[in-house]
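Record 1 of the preview.
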Amino acid sequence: MTDFDFTENWVTILCVTLLILGLIVSVITANAFISYTFIFLSGMLSGRVVYDISRKKHDMAWLYLVIFFFLVGYVLGTYTKPQINRVVIIALFLLANIIAYEIFDKKIIKPLVFDD
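->
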C-alpha cells in the first residue's frame, strides 16, 4: 500500500471537497430564485479570482480546476430539483464571471491588492 502524500495531492483534495460542497449547497437551496442568486454571486466571486489569476506571473491553473469542480458539483446537485434549469445555472455563472472580470479590468471597482 502506498503512502498518501498531501503535498502532492492537495489540489485533488480541494477539487473533490468543492465538488461535494457545491453539490450540498445546491441540494440545500430552497427554491430556484435562491439557487440562481447564489450561483450568480458565486460567478461574481469566480470572476474576481479569474481577474487575479490573469494578473499573476506564476502558474495558477489549479484555481481554474477548483472553480470548474465547484460548478460541476452545483450542477449535479440541481438534478434533485426539476424546477431549476441547468443551462440557466451555467449561463448565469459564466455571465457573472464575465461581468465581474470586466468590472475589475476597467477599474470600475478597484480591487484590494495585498502585496508582500
